[in-house]
Predict the structure.
Amino acid sequence: MIGTGQPCVELQAAPLVCAVVINWNRPDDTLLCLASLRRQEGIFNLEPIVIDNGSSDNSVERIRNAFPGIELLEAGRNVGFASGMNLGIRQALKRGADYALLLNNDTIADPAMLDQLLKQAASGVGLMAPAIFYADQPDRIWSVGGGFSSILLEATGNHGRHRLLPDRPVERGFLSGCALLIHREVFEKVGLFDERFFMYYEDLDFCLRAQRAGYCLWLVPKARLWHKVSLSSGGANSPAERYHMAFSSALYFRKYARGWRLFVVIPYRLMSALRWTVRLGVRGNWQSLSAYWRGLRDGLMEK
């Protein structure tokens, strides 16, 4: 099993990697992302799969015209990140892919990114991620993964506060779903994303399930990616972003908080809700504040 100390999976001379990218009314970003995948250098077969989440613009036509022959699956409606990714992952597994490369469409990959990730994969790691930088501040780190608190059931380490990159691959407790390279064996054992998460927390949920199944998560700092951040949800602290973040957080903690952890997690989450209420209220962002509390309510009631 990969990442569990048992013999590593033997790689083919040219492993098949299917890159899954979701588009929703942002063809310009998707085209730039796909162009960066076309520039990837290394010994592998890379096949992009685009999922269109019910775009109402000319996204499908533009993507097909720019990349003739690309596989583009139309979901018909906006099914969210987890469900959209699952459509692509199922297709990748059906194709016999050795790895699925999951990418936000508002990202641009360094030409050596996939090659660097696959070098780490050759050592037997199941889940890998690149160092992710802000697209508008190319030298500023957005995410290099983080730790995980088994008591609070939450990722530790904040995006954008890292100043230095590690000088070699390091194990993490959490990796952002913005960019993940995952061996097919992980999906076969752990399953796909939990589709109840429309947006946010689906990556933390998947990372936790993978770790509990014995897989390791590794950051590969020589693999690099640039991210435009929160475009799909309307920007940081927008009503849509606050709603989905609150909904998914409530669903996630309902899923995992059991026994004695309830006496820690419930006060912790109440304090978090209070902080966000004050933060949004002070800024006069009443629409986002209302959306935040609706998200908490809906997440707690979700079956």
The CA atoms of residues 63 and 148 lie 38 Å apart. The chain has two domains: 16-227, 239-301. The chain has a mean pLDDT of 91.
